[in-house]
Amino acid sequence: MREGSMAGGRSGATGGDAARDEGAVYEATGDELRTGPGSEVTLRPQSLMLTFLGNFVLGGDVCVYSGSIIEVFGRTGVGEHATRSTLTRMVGRGLLQRRREGRRMYFGLTDRAAAILRDGEHRIWKQGAVNDDWDGTWTLLAFSLPEASQRQRHDLRSQLTWAGFGPLIGGLWIAPGRADVTAIAEDPELGPHIRVFRSTADPATDISRMVHETWDLATLSAGHTAFLDRWSAFADGRGASDVDELAVKLSLLTEWLQIVRADPHLPIQHLPADWPAAVAEDVFRRANARVDAASRALAEELLETMPLRE
């Protein structure tokens, strides 16, 4: 990186804005590409862009020259047109800000984007994939919206799903632990229609059965297993040795973040004995260790930056 610095250490969870935005941001549409060692997986350029920004821009208080970004994304198989379109869409969504220097255009993070990216950092590096310290607490959220409020119902269900909730019965949703519902409660359209409680289950409740009935465990497990199929050989040091470490880093973290964002972080004692999350997380960390130093060196060399604020 010719000016400025890359992101610093891992940071903690963020507040309500991140919780409100992350689902919509990561579900955003866009051109798709297939990438990553092992069997192929579809990734969206915007998801790759968020990974790039979270790893090489967040915390540096810099903005990056568009030509540098195009060069980096070319290494992942994303063309110049798709990269420019992604940058433009993210400016329109309030995730990036532009700064012009002569004939060159630079892009930096908005506060909204930084909050979303810090939440991703927390999920990957601090929260982890396995919930082995659950204290028995559940967050219960009840809502009642008129049938005519279809958009609000969709928005609420989307936010609840991204926050780790599952539909318990009717308009009652449940999440393990003390889920942060601040963003929903403060939403002027949704807040007046919800009620939130913290509680523990009565001993008569079969929690394992409830977990199986409330969340789609087969799909969640399949996501971890597919990740293992794609990345185990690479994590073990097998396969091609002449990989592009920067492209692999972006693909690896983007895939893993998609998995952990979709996972409600259910208590491990109420999941099947062969639950694959711990093994998948180990593979992720070992695969990341193979490319982390080299990818950061490449980014340092390729990215031209300038201060975000003067």
UniProtKB/TrEMBL annotation:
Stretches for region Disordered: 1-20
Domain Transcriptional repressor PaaX-like C-terminal: 215-299
Highest taxon of source: Bacteria
InterPro entries associated with the record: PaaX-like_central, PaaX-like_N, PaaX_C, PaaX_trns_reg, WH-like_DNA-bd_sf
Regions of compositional bias (Gly residues) in chain numbering: 1-15
Protein name listed in UniProt: PaaX family transcriptional regulator
Domain Transcriptional repressor PaaX-like central Cas2-like: 132-206
Pfam families: PaaX, PaaX_C, PaaX_M
Biological-process GO terms, alphabetical: DNA-templated transcription
Domain Transcriptional repressor PaaX-like N-terminal, first and last residues per copy: 44-113
